[in-house]
């Protein structure tokens, strides 16, 4: 037992409350019963360890700074030797590891050496549908929603304001109304195409009160045919009205009397979110795309109610199943791309005289 009480050193006991004549934990300072070698054995080595870590951290930081500085110096030297000018922009360099003072690939964010215009030039075009000065003359990238490259007109994928922002042209809204005395066919068409476009829920009052905030629709009103208002069929719901437009029938005749309904004979419920809306038994009458088919014409639809249903065993020549998550800009671009298809492909594959499109 005496040997147990004769422990007077902190060696192997630092910061532990072990049995002995003296203590080596932090409380011993307040209690005044630290072993004689507590300071030398437990405290001073800990301080040395902290300082060692700080010195190593500082060394690593300086080493990294030296490496970055070396790269910058080397870049400058090579630029002088080969006559290369410092590149400080991502224009034409997005997601490429090309020679320059700053980088434009994805790794530059972690490294902290992105060019100042990296966000505007490389990232934003994947989320916006317009051109800006940063994008004009950009290198074509598949990830961009639309293009501001020099060949976008030839490719048919320019952003909507490309002409005004990048080429200094007046926008269509700013131009005077064009006077057309006789019907004209667009280039590449043998007969004028008919485009029916619907903005669901757009009240007549909007144009009267807020026309100044709707420049495109106001331009169509001022340069085209316009009526102050129309009386919808009742109920004033999306499916009944849109199906009346393409069949010429009232809801009691074409069967689609509401967006949500129950048929006791079929013992089935119809709704816009159920698979039952694809059942052709609900749709009576003859929509215009079927009439066009019977007359040897081709039609295309984009999200028009009933157009993704095999009514009388017939679909439009081209159509898409409704998907509310697709942005309106992408819907418009899809129709424009159909219109710009080569003549032969457009004749044989898609439409000739009718396009029906709706934004629900």
From TrEMBL:
Cofactor(s) needed for function: Zn(2+)
Membrane-spanning segments: 63-84
First-listed, main subcellular location of the protein, grouped into a coarse class: secreted
Molecular function GO terms recorded: dinucleotide phosphatase activity; metal ion binding; phosphodiesterase I activity; polysaccharide binding; scavenger receptor activity
Listed GO CC annotations: cell surface; extracellular region
Biological process (GO), any one: regulation of bone mineralization
Alphabetized PROSITE patterns for the sequence: SMB_1 (PS00524), SMB_2 (PS50958)
Keyword vocabulary terms for this entry: Disulfide bond, Glycoprotein, Hydrolase, Membrane, Metal-binding, Repeat, Secreted, Transmembrane, Transmembrane helix, Zinc
Pfam hit, one: Phosphodiest
SMB domain segment(s): 6-46, 86-126, 127-171
Database matches in Gene3D superfamilies: 4.10.410.20, Alkaline Phosphatase, subunit A
Alphabetized SMART domains for the sequence: SO
Subcellular location(s) per record: Secreted
UniProt-listed InterPro entries: Alkaline_phosphatase_core_sf (IPR017850), Phosphodiest/P_Trfase (IPR002591), SMB_chordata (IPR020436), Somatomedin_B-like_dom_sf (IPR036024), Somatomedin_B_dom (IPR001212)
Protein name (Swiss-Prot/TrEMBL): SMB domain-containing protein
Originating species: Spermophilus dauricus (Daurian ground squirrel)
